[in-house]
């Protein structure tokens, strides 16, 4: 559960919760810790717009999509890091790219270009060239029948500094990324919920969100 003070805030807090089934009460796992999000704050992710804020997440706007999204797979530079995880892990090679070209058939996909005979994209993030991607996970935003204007390549990853906003991803200190990845269990269908404070309070009861 990630909450920021307001729509334009770059800093927020994240706290982990777990429950066995939908009827159970959310149980906190550890304490909250600081994160940074998009350099321009948040905007509603595709399909989640609510209330009075009209802003929608768009490609290249440096905003994090508010909403609830699945988390998987994990990824990183170390080839063996995934051995003790309870979720899929992609060991990033020099050929891994996250495609952010809306004209590509692989838009918003993490792909290995060595496995693609005819790459059709003109832009993409070369994952191994970005130090902050040395450890993280994919946030499954806009991945099913993607809206080509709604944004791409959303990750949880290591932050550059505690005050430096991202292009839209969620970032935190490396120790917290490791801790979170070791805790996540794919069999429990993990998700991340991300909202500014007021939107979180407005939706907490009706969406059965954890109590901060």
From TrEMBL:
Molecular function as annotated in GO: transferase activity
InterPro entries linked: LD_TPept_cat_dom
Domain L,D-TPase catalytic span(s) in chain numbering: 31-191
Xref: PANTHER family: BLR0621 PROTEIN
Protein name: L,D-TPase catalytic domain-containing protein
Native organism: Candidatus Glomeribacter gigasporarum BEG34
């Amino acid at each position: 559960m990630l909450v920021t003070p307001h729509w334009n805030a770059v800093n927020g807090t994240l706290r982990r919760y777990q429950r066995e089934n939908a009827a159970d009460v959310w149980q906190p796992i550890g304490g909250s810790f600081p994160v940074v999000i998009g350099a321009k704050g948040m905007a509603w992710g595709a399909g989640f717009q609510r209330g009075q804020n009209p802003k929608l997440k768009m490609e290249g706007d440096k905003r994090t999509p508010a909403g609830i999204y699945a988390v998987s797979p994990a990824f990183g530079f170390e080839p063996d890091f995934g051995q003790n995880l309870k979720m899929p892990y992609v060991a990033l090679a020099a050929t891994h790219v996250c495609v952010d070209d809306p004209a590509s058939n692989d838009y918003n996909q993490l792909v290995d270009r060595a496995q693609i005979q005819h790459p059709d994209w003109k832009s993409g993030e070369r994952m191994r060239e970005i130090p902050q991607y040395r450890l993280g996970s994919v946030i499954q935003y806009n991945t099913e029948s993607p809206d080509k204007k709604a944004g791409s390549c959303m990750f949880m990853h290591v932050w550059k500094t505690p005050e430096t906003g991202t292009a839209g991803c969620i970032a935190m200190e490396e120790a917290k990324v490791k801790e979170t990845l070791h805790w996540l269990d794919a069999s429990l269908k993990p998700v991340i919920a991300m909202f500014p404070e007021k939107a979180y309070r407005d939706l907490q009861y009706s969406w059965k969100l954890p109590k901060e």
